[in-house]
Design brief:
The chain is α/β, with parallel strands linked by helices. It has six helices and nine strands. It is globular and about 50 Å long. It starts with a strand and ends in a 6-residue tail after the last helix.
């Protein structure tokens, strides 16, 4: 199975992943339109679509492809509900799109349905809203995977006009592995406290990176 990797970016943020990937540029900062265009572009491939503000887990390609091989025909969201604890499960509600696997048999159908919905909801600012409705209309559920295989840098969103949300997760695989705990025990009070300490440490680091890496108009 040949999996292709793509990264969506506005090119206003510096990033570099230890991965062979193609860059998809949103030059006009139109998050919904550029996302649908990206889906059409990647629809010839079994593809992983990434955003440009992430930390990839150690051995990312090996880890993500191991999961994909178990569910090759399913959309898999590898980062969702960052502050919520839950196990890997199927869902009809699509939340976040930092790191998602799209099998080529589904992607164009999804893009077509999102295009129709976008014409009905032209003021929609969230492509997750349209994606959820499209998947429900198509009768397609997707897999939400835990622990997350990427960490979202907790900075302002460029793709969504500087939105500020608490999007860094304590349930990042590298944190779990570093603490030597099972993900099933991550919700326990003692472990949660240790994970939150790691979140706080990285939040400070990401904020420093933001001040140095993003052009002045986006600070």
């Amino acid at each position: 199975m040949n999996i292709q990797y793509f990264v969506r970016t506005t090119e206003d943020r510096e990033f570099d992943y230890d991965l062979d990937y193609e860059i998809l540029v949103d030059t006009e900062h139109k998050a919904v339109d550029s996302f649908i265009e990206a889906l059409y572009y990647i629809s010839d491939f079994d593809a992983v679509l990434l955003e440009d503000d992430l930390v990839l887990c150690k051995n990312f390609k090996e880890e993500i492809e191991k999961v994909i091989m178990q569910y090759p025909d399913k959309i898999i969201n590898f980062f969702s509900g960052p502050r919520k604890y839950y196990s890997t499960h199927f869902s009809d509600f699509f939340d976040y799109n930092q790191c998602t696997y799209y099998p080529k048999a589904i992607t164009k159908k999804l893009a077509d349905e999102m295009t129709i919905l976008h014409s009905k909801y032209p003021k929609a600012r969230s492509y997750n809203f349209l994606e959820t409705k499209a998947l429900v209309n198509l009768g397609i559920s997707h897999l939400v995977y835990r622990p997350t295989l990427v960490q979202h840098k907790d900075v302002k969103s460029i793709l969504n006009d500087g939105a500020e949300l608490k999007r860094i997760t304590p349930y990042f695989k590298d944190y779990i592995d570093e603490l030597g705990i099972a993900y099933e025990d991550a919700f326990k009070l003692e472990n949660k406290k240790r994970l939150d300490e790691m979140v706080e440490k990285d939040t400070i680091k990401f904020e420093k990176e933001m001040r140095g890496d993003i052009k002045d108009e986006f600070i």
